[in-house]
Amino acid sequence: MLFNLYGDNAMWQLLGWVLVFAGLVICNEIARRTKAGGVFFFLILPLALTVYFIAIAVGAANGSEWALNNQTHKYMNGWFHYAKLYAAVAGCIGFMMLKYKWGIGKKEWFKPFPFIIVAINILIAVCSDFESAIRGAQAFAETGSRYWLSNEGVWLYGGWWNWVNGIAGILNIFCMTGWWGIYTSKKKDDMLWPDMTWQFILAYDVWNFTYTYLNLPTHSWYCGIALLLAPTFAAMFWNKGGWIQNRANTLATWCMFAQVFPLFQVGSKCAVLPSLYGKEWTNGLELATAAQPAYANPTAQGVMAILAIVVNVLCITIIIKRSLEQKKNPYKNEIFTDQKDFQIAMARAEEQ
Question: Which Pfam families does this chain map to (predicted)?
Fold first, then answer.
């Protein structure tokens, strides 16, 4: 079992998941369908939150109690969360520039931007994975346990699984094909990347879930499942070719929510922990205030890491095989043109 879903809180945990999933799907629809929705979610809201984050940082530096006790400062003050939030927001803004042809969004040379920003986001996670592997090894040498305490007060369990998943993340970057195959939908509501078909989406989702499971254990029930399924669900049923836009929109929205209200996933009745920690702890807040855990069961971590690299190796193998058969560079050209999802997405695209 991947997560500890049991006891009196099980219904709250499931309800929390449903609310997050539904909320992300709805927010994505609002953001993608109108300019006003996109501007609010990815320009106005991030600017307002930036002022809020700066105020917290200044207050904490001056020793103000309100800032030192603030949820964001106590539980979301690590480099990764801020890097992920602003990288996701930058992606959303760039995608709107391409979709609406704002400024450099009209230029042909700007079309690889989605690849670049997704690659940056993946590399941020890869660095975090490798950091956990190194910290786990150092902790093992010093204490005999692979548990190490992150700067956000979370006990992480670093090991070989982090190296394996980090390598899977690097492979995942090269599973993105057709970098110049970026289109605007006829209705002007979507930026489309038709060559990003189900093979890549599956490889990305398995890798990214594993990343969150290993490195964001107090969040992974939500950011590892609900957040990943929301864009995939939309792309599967009504937004063919728009997965990467869905992903950026939902990721940025979730990052902003989680940065301001981390206790929802860390310390409320809706909080869920991975099976790594056993049943001793009911939520991340208890875990964060405890001494180094004595129990650890990393079986699920190892299984997911192996699955992540296997799926990504299979994906890159398919890409190499197709590119050789079609005599195409898979990054300059689209190679999944025979697939139904690609054809549906292209039917939605405006002529260039």
Answer: DUF5692
CA–CA separation, 138 and 147 (whole Å): 10
Helix, strand, coil percentages in the chain from 3-state DSSP, rounded to 5: 70, 5, 30
β partners of residue 183: 192
Tell me the C-alpha distance between 42 and 47, whole Å.
8
Straight-line distance from the first to the last Cα atom of the chain, in angstroms, rounded to the nearest whole number: 49
Q: Are 172 and 202 in contact (CB under 8 A)?
A: no
Residue written as token pair 């001793």: 280
Q: Which two tokens stand for residue 6?
A: 């049991």
Q: Is 349 helix (H, G, I), strand (E, B) or coil?
A: strand
Give the type of residue at 331. Y
Burial 294-309 (b: 16+ CB within 10 A, else e): eebebebbeebbebbb
Q: What is the DSSP letter of 112?
A: T
CA 180 to chain CA centroid, Å, is 23
- To the nearest whole percent, how much of the chain has pLDDT over 90? 87
Within 10 angstroms of residue 51's Cβ, the number of other Cβ atoms is 9
> Residue type at 268?
S
> What is the pLDDT, as a whole number, of residue 352?
67
Asked if 150 and 78 count as a contact pair (C-beta separation under 8 A), the reply is yes
Q: How far, rounded to the nearest angstrom, does the alpha carbon of residue 156 sit from its chain's CA centroid?
A: 18
Residue at token pair 């809180």: 9
**pTM of the full predicted structure?**
0.94
Nearest to 79 by CA among 63, 100, 95, 57: 57
CA atoms within 13 Å, Cβ hemisphere of 204: 23
Strand, helix or coil at 147?
strand
**42: DSSP letter:** I
> Tell me, what DSSP letter sits at residue 6?
-
- Interatomic CA distance for residues 222 and 212, integer angstroms: 9
37-81 pLDDT, tens digit each: 999 999 999 999 999 999 999 999 999 999 999 999 988 888 878
Alpha helix ranges (H) inside 216-242: 220-221, 227-237
Contacts of 210 (CB under 8 A, 6+ apart): 165, 168, 304, 305, 307, 308
